[in-house]
Every structure is written in structure tokens, then in C-alpha cells.
Amino acid sequence: MKSFDYVRPETADAAHEAAGRFIAGGTNLIDLMKLQVETPEKLVDINRLDLRGISTEGDGLKIGALVSNSELAADLRIRTDYPLLSRALLSGATQQLRNKATTGGNFLQRTRCPYFYEPHQACNKRTPGEGCSAQGGVTRMLAVLGTSEHCLAAHPSDMAVAMRALDAKIAVTRADGTTERLALDDFYLLPGDRPDRETVLEPGDLITAVHLPAPAAGRQTYRKVRDRSSYAFALVSVAARIAMEDGKISDAALAFGGLAPRPWRDGAVEEILIGEAPSEALFGKAADRLLAEAKGAGGNDFKIPLTRRTLIAVLNDLTGESA
What we know:
The chain is of the alpha+beta class and 323 residues long. Helix content is 28%, strand content 20%. A hairpin with a 2-residue loop joins strand 10 (236-245) and strand 11 (248-257).
């Protein structure tokens, strides 16, 4: 690990003035620094900032950026009204890591693409313009939707997938002091020709909170398919909420992990379901729409049929249809 400066500001203004790389739990960043994939010259520890706590906000919740994954998963309001979020959090990492990992930091996890983690391999995400060794390489964990010729990396977070299905918004304080709330589709960027740009954040921008809307009607679940039953990243995951009325689907929210460079949600898939009676034919049609532009790269081709089966199984479960 290369040497770096370290500061612990007491206020958000001081954190911005410190002009360095923010760190909270450090569960991903420290690993990247050890491998010299990332080499920040200054770390700004934000753990002394007033960014903790889970509070009621209107009919929804405000979650501080420094709330740990363990605290969030265990909160009774989350378990009762947003259970798919609790399930997603508990499916990720170890208890020790969840105790350190923060809500804000979870959104900023870097990909687990093996070429990104190996400095001797070409990676446009790590070094723009260098090339993408994943093209024609080992692709088992990589994306099949939203990729480009410059990058095949998949986003690793479970929590962010759940947040996408729940229509969460991320509160950001910009370096100039202005604030805004961003939907996840506006927060994350697709790789295009700049895979190194993963979000709209600029240097000095700070995630301060996450806002969840009022709980929506319906049954919820988070299903994660992985190589082993714990401590593994998703091959495919589905965060889903389905509401039924008079034997038909009245509302639906579906987000997917392991498939794309960001938590993936396609409104057209939900539109196919809403207003229709559950059936295998309907669920197959929804899967067709979701995967219409999916493209494997050899080692990850299996993700396409696996996603179809996982989505159909989740829809069967939530609508009361037999699997």
C-alpha cells in the first residue's frame, strides 16, 4: 500500500475542504488500496460526521449514510415494511463486514471483475483507454446487459438492487454546498466509452442519506443465486414486489443484480405484468422482454437462461402460483 495522508474532520464543511477521498467503513476501498488498484493521496474519514440514524420522514424513512448494513438489516421498520431490503443486506458478505460497511459506501462498491483487480491486466475501468482484458477472457461473473465494447463489468451490490426496486433516492451534498436527491437510475452511469465513470458524483461530493418512500402494497422478496450459499456475489439476483387485486397483478417492481454495470430495472417488464392474471405464459413474456438485448460473452452465457428461471420462480412465489 502506498503512503497517504489521513484526516478526520468534525463537520461536513471541513470534510469538503479537506479535498480527499472519503472513507467510512472502508470494506472495499482498503482492499483496493492494498492491491494498488486505487492509490488516493489523502483519505478523509467521515465517521465523525452527523450522518447516522434511521428516522421517519413523512410516510417513509430517512437512512443516514453512516448507518451500518447490520443496523439497517435489523431495524424493525425495515424488516416490517421493506423486507426485501433486509433480505438483500443479510445475503451479502459476513456479519463482521456488515458491521463495518455503511449504507452510503454500499452504493459505491467497485466491480469484482478479476481484470479490474489485477493491475497487470488491461482495464478501461481502472485506466481509461487501456483496453478490456475481459473481452475474450474469463467472464463468469460479468454482465450480460448494459455493457459496451469497453467494459463487461457487473455491479456487485445486493443492497443497491433492493433500493432500486424500492424507488429509493440518494441525498448528495456537492462540493459547492448544494444538495440534491437522485434516483438510482440517475445516480449510476452505464460504461459506454468511459467505464471509469460509474456514478454522477464528482470529487468532493458526499452521500449523506438515503430516502425510502412510503411502503407500497404487495408481497416482497429478494432472491440471490450464487455459487455457494453464503459469502459470495450474485450470479443473478431479483428484488421484487408484487401486489395483487381481484386475481390480477395491480402493481409490480422488479430490479436485478449480477446482470449489468448498475442495478438493472426495466419498466417495460413491469408494464407487461400489471393488469394481467398470473400465468406461465405471462411470466415468460416478461422474461423475454427483460432479456431481449442480453448478450453473453462465453463464460457468462448461462446467466441468460438462469435469469429467466429465477424471474419466473420469483413471480410464481409472489403471485401464489405454483412453481
